[in-house]
Amino acid sequence: MIQWVTTLKAALQAVMVAGLLVSVASCDGDARPFEEQIEAGDLNLQSISIAPPANSLVPLYIGSGQGIQLAINGLTFDNEPLLISPENRRWTSSNESVLTVSEGGYVIGRSPGTAFVSVRVGGSVANEALLINVSDTPLQGIARIAGSGDNNGVLQQALDPCLAVSFSAIGNFGGEDERPLENVEWSIDAASLAVDAEVFRAPNSAPGSTLLVGRTPTSAGGVAAISLTATVLANEDEGTPAFTSTRQLDVDNSLTSFSVSPKEANVLTGRSVRLTAPVTYSTNNGVNFATNGVAWSVAQGSQAVRVGTVGDDPGVVTAITNGTATVVATCGAFSDSAIITVAGNSGNLVFNRNADIILTLADPDFEGLEVAQGNEFFQENAVTDEANWASSDTSIVTVDNDGSDRGDIRAVGVGEATITAEFEGARIGITVIVE
Amino acid sequence: MRALLAILAFSFSFSAHSADRFYGEIHGAVGGIQHSELSFRPIEAHFSVGGYLWDHIGLDLNFAGPLEVGEDDDFTVQLESLTTLSLRFDSPPMDGLSAFMLFGVSRFSVSQRGVNSQGAARTVRENFQAGTFSIGLRQQLGATPLSLVGLYRLHYVDQPINIDSWALGLRAAWR
């Protein structure tokens, strides 16, 4: 009996100690630096530096609650620059009550003050820590409109035709505290349209910035062609009024050559091809690409393709249905075109019919169009209810994209449109003619 | 730490009536450190002291340090220092041979040295805390207080790095 009691005591002691060990056995440590060191070796990395956002100013200010994404620039032993992913790195803030920085290099201001941000990649420490000031001073006005073509304070006076230039509104927060503003509304006045100008947002551009393009040169001796205005709305929470600032710009008569590349392309239905617009200017050497700034359109065969224009995948031609199309790029008096031939389908999707669908307004409904994966239609491969259905022109024909009626078509106007079905990245189109 | 010491003192107070139950061990070990498709085999020296709370249940405190770096590609790796506290469970001996398992926690640091294309060396060093599991065999050497010990030791960290070792050593036991 005594032996059993003592054995039980021993077992209980073991459990107590085991529990203690388990409770403190939380794993800790980071193997990432070892992987990074190998990555650094593969990249032949000599040094790294922290890069603030492209349109940021020195000294760098942010507000409490405001965030900025930092990047890492690398330099190889061959003095080649590298862009190194900021994700999953050892970022540190010298004062986390002032600002914090995530493992992905995203800085958030916490309270007024200054702090240094540094980063380490595989044993390399950024050459210089980045000093960031956090301030809660409210906006006092728009100091100026800054452009990516400005050079050390010398403002760019004239734009090269069709070359999109980025502009930011620089806010004055008092003293040396100037920052690019994020909540800015951009506009150009009506007279600017005489030079075929546009302001537009581009994907991945800095918050609050805009792209401006002018296509028709200003007449010699004329007044400034474009009035670009930045407006910041009043902020009741911060008690700041609305602010506006305007910058005048001309468009140079500098365009010397203009073309579209490639001149011809064959594309499968549902697939895309990217056209570019190489140009040359008298104001600088070499070939530039005005792809983002030229006006793209489909001159012929609009049922076969669609083309993205400024602010929306410019120059990207998506094949909708079989046919030939002429895609035109225009820059003022200059224009060029490419012939796009659409043939076959994506290889992944197929309709249960090949012929065009012909409807009348008197008998507008068409049911039974189905789509399947594969090169030949089999009902067991149908993805009709999972596909995303769309019409190229809903004023001519509509298509249901909900529930069990997916793919049901209704004519609403006379003309020609394309119904497309998209599934897992593949797209197929069929022409619908309404008489 | 105070709680740990208190529990240890409390636990050993129950083992006063047991047989000779303290030991020291010295091991030579081949470590294994794998990450990023690289594999290193550094050589390590281990030293352990321990005691039994009861006949077959005890505590083990292990220290380790490097003897030789492991090499792969342009990199060398070594286990710079290691401390492990484990709870051990021994099987009853048969003809002097017994098996044992240890469950514990460990703290250690690993350093990796790389030489770049310009010949310059750069070292990264990381500290880890891990759960540790060991399994092995011990053979009593006749009537002496000495035993031969062989064991496999695995340190688990929730990271994409594997750290373990194979060790062979000698134990001396006393009351």
Number of strands of chain B: 10
Note the main sheet of chain B: 8 strands, antiparallel, barrel
Shape of chain B: elongated
Question: What is the CATH C-level name of chain B?
Answer: Mainly Beta
Q: Which class of secondary structure composition applies to the elements of chain B?
A: mainly beta
Which parts of chain B are unreliable, with pLDDT below 50 for 5 consecutive residues or more? Answer: 14-18
Mean pLDDT of chain B: 88
Following the backbone from N to C, one meets helices and strands of chain B in this order, namely: HEEEEEEEEEE
* CATH-derived topology of chain B: Porin
Mean of residue pLDDT values of chain A = 86
Low-confidence stretches of chain A: none
Describe the protein's architecture and organization.
- The complex is a heterodimer of chains A (435) and B (175).
- Chain A is mostly beta strands.
- Chain A is 8% helix and 43% strand.
- Chain A has 2 helices and 39 strands.
- In chain A, a hairpin with a 4-residue loop joins strand 7 (99-101) and strand 8.
- Chain A is globular, with a radius of gyration of 30 Å.
- The model of chain A has no long low-confidence stretch (mean pLDDT 86).
- Chain B has 175 residues and is mainly β.
- Chain B contains 1 helix and 10 strands.
- Chain B has one helix at residues 2-13; strands spanning 22-35, 38-40, 43-54, 57-68, 70-72, 75-90, 97-115, 121-140, 146-156, 162-174.
- In chain B, a hairpin with a 2-residue loop joins strand 3 (43-54) and strand 4.
- Chain B is elongated.
- The two termini of chain B are 26 Å apart.
